[in-house]
Amino acid sequence: MENEQNSAPLGPVSLLDRLANACKIVALTGLVIITLVQAWQVFARYILNNSPGWTEPVSVFFMGMTVMMAAAVGVREGTHFSFSNILDAMPAGIQALVRRLLLALTLGVALLLAYWGMTLALDNWDVSMAGAPIPAGIRYVPFAIGASIMALFAAERLVARQKN
Question: What is the pTM of this model?
Fold first, then answer.
């Protein structure tokens, strides 16, 4: 039987359902890109004896995007920040309250991550990244975007809990 904490809000396919699916696609695409970039790094280093400098910053960017998109989906599906083992051990009377508190905490942390991610991106935008001719601030953009989506999904779940 599926734990109610681990289920996404039910109903017709919504804009947030589509956003969650898009996050999954971005995360999976990021994994493929990281794999290809690292494969090229190994090939260029050991076969061509010419290690490209751009592979590390590109991989770091896509790793951040992959992690943040997957974390956002995890918040929506109730698997990230869920603490299900602890909640299941609690008396039924306080589980609902603790679940709401966890969602509110997740929302707050996500908003802070979004704010600081955007702040770091803007503060580092004029600095060139070592190894690639792109702004250093771009490495923080995934945190701002992913955390914003995470906050949106946490708010969605919190509102759904308040209705129940």
Answer: 0.82
